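Worked Example 4.2. Consider the chain below.
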Amino acid sequence: MVRQDKRDNHVDNKDNKERVISGAVLKAAEKLGLTDTQLAKVLKISPSKLSRGRKSGAFVKESGAEYDLALQVIRIFRALDALSGEDSVYVQKWMTNKNLTLNGRPIDLVQDIGSLVRVADYLDSRRAIV
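Applying the procedure from the previous section yields the following structure tokens:
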């Protein structure tokens, strides 16, 4: 019988989680119309780290600030996807058109941490309207 060290299992779970979040944020960014340069700016990482991570499958580290920022990008995509009825054209237009309530184009606003959270909160509030 082979015993597996619990620490090895924890590392595997962490690596898998980081790969899942990395893949999800890449897909979300693509659907939102964010370029790699814009996504790197949103996540506060270098474009080269994003490029290397795209190849390796994991660039979002759970211990890094980019992890929480990636979750916000995914949150924005999920909210917009739900609000639009999965209409990708609507999602990209919403991101690139000026939003009077947010006072700017969401695609520009998300590149600032405070505005990223504000956009996510705004979309969550729109989803809650019954």
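The radius of gyration is 16 Å. The chain has one domain: 6-127. Compare this with Example 4.1 before moving on.
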